[in-house]
Design a protein that fits this description.
Layout lengths: L1 E5 L4 E5 L5 E8 L2 E6 L4 E6 L2 H4 L15
Antiparallel strand pairs: 1-2, 2-5, 3-4, 4-5
Length: 67
């Protein structure tokens, strides 16, 4: 798993795999899941991450997980 944080949009993306992309599915107003062509989740994007994920600190993302 890889993690990418975008400070300009305060969004975080959890990337699970590099399967071919099919579509995105909106779960809530601030959560979108990318779905592969095989129907499995490829990644999750969370908007306003520092507000909605309790205790989330982007500065503490381990480098081995950072994109």
């Amino acid at each position: 798993m890889k993690i990418k944080y975008d400070k300009t949009t305060d969004s975080v993306y959890f990337h699970f795999n590099s399967s071919p992309y099919s579509h995105s599915k909106k779960i809530t107003d601030g959560v979108v899941v990318d779905i592969s062509k095989t129907g499995k989740p490829m990644g999750i994007e969370i908007l306003d991450a520092t507000k909605v994920i309790k205790g989330f600190n982007p500065a503490k993302i381990p480098s081995r997980y950072a994109i």
